[in-house]
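hi! just following up on the protien thing from before. the input was this:
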Amino acid sequence: MSHAVSAPTPLHVPAIPIRQILPWAVFAGLLFGLVMYFVSTEQGALSMFDGMSVHELVHDGRHLLGFPCH
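and the predicted 3d structure came back as:
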């Protein structure tokens, strides 16, 4: 009982040019920065909105990420 074993063909991973990735990376970075601002800083010393609406919206997220808010 002899089985022929063939060598696996190498996997070709296409290269993605940086020009295609850069706009999405900038967008993701800006979106991440905006979310982190609202979770960490809003309703504090640098708040842009009056009232507690934004604070209540991200309250649990603040505690989950370890940001104090009380």
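Residues 37-70 form one domain.
The chain has two helices and no strands.
cheers
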